[in-house]
Design brief:
Chain A: Transcriptional activator that binds specific DNA sequence. The complex is a heterodimer of chains A (615) and B (133). Helix content of chain A is 47%, strand content 4%. Chain A has 615 residues and is mostly helical. In chain A, strands 2-1-3-4-5 form a five-stranded parallel beta sheet, sandwiched between helices. Chain A is globular and about 50 Å long. Chain B has helices at 7-16, 24-48, 54-71, 74-89, 92-123. The chains are: A mainly alpha (615), B mainly alpha (133).
Chain lengths: 615, 133
């Protein structure tokens, strides 16, 4: 009886506007919600599908992530929400989550039998709309439509904001209102469309009729986008210009803007991982002033992106970083320590770390492997202190950076067990000193422009720092970037646990870290990945920031991330439980801060690091 | 069945059964046993290797545990959790011992379920067959 269901699972055919064929059902929403469920366990898949059908949703099931992705790509507007398992043999659930978010901007719900905090956190940092614990109850599935609505609403708002036009705003506002109400009515889609139409003002090319709020970012389109971004430089890559460069009819600035956000996060994540080592600080690090201006983060991103894409020679990045940071150009090895963290902020750190010092590190690989997420996603705290130590040892000079990465990696990946299982961690071994970062990653690294020019900005990504970092990542990104870059530098310095002040950076990260949002776990990270140390500390909210490994003092850190100027409060064991990861971070941060840190975290990350890794 | 099954979960499955899918529960359970047999086999093989790859074991067990919990196999799930503890501790002996338990519970449950379904079929599609408690 689904009204309007005639379309079948893939309703691509029907006008986009109404999934359900407009005529029916406006009141029926969420009936007919199109769900794609991915799980390698056939038993679960069967049960889920049945449950979803009972909720009157349309269901498409896949047992492999690749399959799901290709279906989604082939039918961009065919689905409203994706539910995916975390542990899958062919692709990590978080990676799928990232891809979907980046390419299709669909709400993704993660699920797993694993309910450990770190994994849930990872889901959050990766942008999952929700996280369900298996065995899943039908009641939990009944409400998933709320995520779809919420996302749409946010998208609109975002678009509106981006357009920044007052006039748009108005019509939009009303639209929003309509939208919400329409949801109730069930014709929300229609209203959206209407909104679009009304809006068409400003640079909307609505040729494609806003009907579709969502643009499908095909591979080509994405390539064009990347090209445009690279051309402009990550700092200058503003949606408007990108749009102009891309010159794609029907593409609106808002589409570009939201995609850019995602992309930045994605890059961050990537850069940390595999990118060349050069990347270390590069993208994020914006050679710019250590002050990390918000740009720095952006810059960092560019670099990373570039690095990531391989277009930028790692060296250039390194140079950039070096220049910016004032550090010697880091050997290409330094993979972009950048906090890659995209959203997760935390993760980015890991990447940066990888490169640091250890060329071998592969950490980047590790991180990259999956998605940057390795970086620290989740809670960097896992960074096993050991890794940090490694980082530390590694290159003192770079160690900061590197370690950071590794640290991050280690830290975040609670799962990855420090060493990398996650791949991110790799770096850890090397320079361990950097460990600090990992934490920072989580926290938007207060950007300790740490001296070192710690390109790692990585963690700064932490965007998370702000409440709900995920969505805010654009903000964070900027902040993070900026910070990150700085932070990294600082971090590096600080990270090297060496207490040697390497950290000259005296990254205050700790302080700056995210204090504000300690709750978020990342929020602190917003501080700028650079501070990662601090950030981590902050971030560690939970953990306590003990990470303050070294003394990071990232003086530069002061920035903390955008949202929370929180000064390093993170140290405060906001999340006392988090311990695992956070602790590391805090420890790191603490160290870095040298004293700034609320010292709560006494660097006891040793304690946690390994244990924390919640596999 | 008591103790073996998580009734809440099993209930959920039963609720899903309807006219369109009158044998849903049985289908799910059958699928579970078929799929998990494969996992059990993999685990056994992994346990015989030396040195034992705990990571792999843990990952298999995670899957197995997830499946089992989705049909409400409480005891099996509990043993799986225990197994994972040993796994994480790198305790091969503990793993082997626990796995024997897992298999035991798994087989016992299967028998019970088979009986249950037989009865259910006999009782006819009316309601859900009463679960032998």
């Amino acid at each position: 009886m689904n009204p309007g269901n005639g379309r079948g699972v893939v309703s691509s055919v029907s006008s986009r506007v109404s999934r359900k064929s407009s005529e029916t059902v406006p009141d029926q929403f969420p009936v007919g919600l199109r769900v794609m469920v991915v799980d390698d366990d056939p038993t679960c898949l069967m049960i889920l599908e049945k449950m979803l059908r009972t909720c009157k949703y349309e269901v498409k099931r896949c047992s492999r992530a690749e399959e799901a992705l290709s279906i989604l790509r082939g039918n961009s507007n065919g689905y409203d929400v994706v539910i995916s398992d975390v542990h899958m043999p062919d692709m990590d659930g978080f990676k799928l989550l990232e891809q979907v978010g980046l390419e299709m901007d669909l709400p993704v719900i993660m699920m797993s039998a694993d309910d450990s905090k770190s994994v849930v956190m990872k889901g959050v940092t990766h942008g999952a709309c929700d996280y369900l614990i298996k065995p899943v109850r039908i009641e939990a599935l009944k409400n998933i439509w709320q995520h779809v609505v919420r996302k749409r609403k946010n998208e609109w708002k975002e678009v509106e904001q981006q357009s920044g036009s007052a006039d748009d705003g108005q019509p939009k506002q009303s639209e929003d209102g309509d939208y919400s109400s329409s949801v109730n009515e069930g014709s929300w889609r229609n209203s959206k469309r209407r909104k679009d139409d009304d809006e068409d003002g400003e640079d909307r090319d609505d040729t494609s009729t806003l009907k579709k709020p969502r643009v499908v970012w095909s591979v080509e389109l994405h390539q064009q986008f990347v090209g445009a971004v690279n051309q402009l430089g990550i700092d200058k890559a503003v949606p408007k210009k990108i749009l102009e460069l891309m010159n794609v009819p029907g593409l609106t600035r808002e589409n570009v803007a939201s995609h850019l956000q995602k992309y930045r996060l994605y890059l961050r994540r990537l850069s940390g991982v595999s990118q060349h080592q050069n990347n270390l600080g590069s993208p994020f690090m914006n050679p710019q002033d250590p002050g990390y201006g918000p740009l720095s983060t952006l810059n960092g991103i560019d670099l990373q992106t570039l690095a990531a894409t391989g277009q930028l020679p790692a060296q250039s990045l390194a140079n950039l970083q070096a220049a910016g940071l004032g550090r010697a150009a880091i050997a290409p090895k330094s993979r972009i320590p950048i906090p890659v963290v995209d959203q997760r902020n935390l993760f980015s750190f890991e990447n940066p770390k990888l490169t640091f010092g250890d060329t071998q590190q592969q950490p980047q690989h590790l991180n990259n492997g999956g998605k940057q997420i390795n970086l620290l996603h989740g809670i960097p705290t896992n960074m096993e202190p050991k890794q940090l130590v490694n980082l530390h040892h590694q290159g003192n000079s770079i160690p900061a950076v590197q370690s950071v990465q590794s640290v991050h990696n280690g830290s975040y990946q609670p799962q990855s067990r420090v060493q990398q299982p996650m791949g991110n961690y790799n770096p850890v071994s090397h320079t361990s000193p950097m460990i600090n970062f990992p934490l920072s990653s989580i926290y938007p690294l207060p950007n300790n422009p740490a001296k070192g020019g710690f390109p790692e900005d990585v963690t700064s990504e932490m965007k998370g720092s702000t409440p709900g970092f995920v969505p805010s990542y654009d903000i964070f990104n900027e902040l993070n970037h900026q910070q990150k870059v700085h932070d990294w530098e600082l971090q590096n310095v600080g990270l090297t646990f060496n207490a040697t002040q390497q950290a000259n950076n005296s990254i205050d990260v700790v302080g700056t870290s995210i204090v504000g949002s300690p709750h978020q776990a990342f929020p602190s990270s917003s501080q700028g990945s650079g501070l990662s140390r601090n950030a981590s500390v902050v971030h560690a909210n939970n953990n306590n920031n003990a990470i303050s490994m070294g003394q990071h003092h990232m003086s530069n850190n002061n920035f903390y991330h955008e949202n929370n100027p929180v000064r390093v409060k993170l140290e405060t064991p906001l999340f006392p439980e988090q311990f695992g990861q956070d602790d590391l971070m805090s420890a790191l941060l603490k160290q870095q801060q040298g004293g700034i840190v609320p010292a709560e975290n006494d660097f006891d990350f040793d304690g946690y690091s390994i244990d924390n890794i919640p596999v | 069945f008591q103790g073996y099954l998580d009734h809440e979960q099993f209930n959920q499955l039963e609720e899903l059964q309807d006219d369109a899918n009158p044998n849903f529960v049985e289908e799910v359970v059958t699928l579970y046993y078929r799929d998990s047999a494969r996992l059990v086999h993999s685990i056994e093989q992994a346990l015989e290797k030396s040195p034992i790859d705990f990571n792999k074991l843990d990952s298999y067990m995670h899957q197995f545990r997830g499946s089992s919990s989705s049909i409400g196999a409480k005891k099996v799930k509990a043993e799986c959790s225990l197994f994972r503890e040993y796994c994480r501790a790198g305790n091969g002996e503990g793993c082997m011992r626990t796995f024997q338990q897992v298999k035991k519970e798994y087989t016992a449950l299967r028998k019970k379920l088979e009986t249950f379904f037989q009865l259910a079929r006999q009782a006819g599609p009316v309601d859900r067959a009463r679960r032998p408690k």
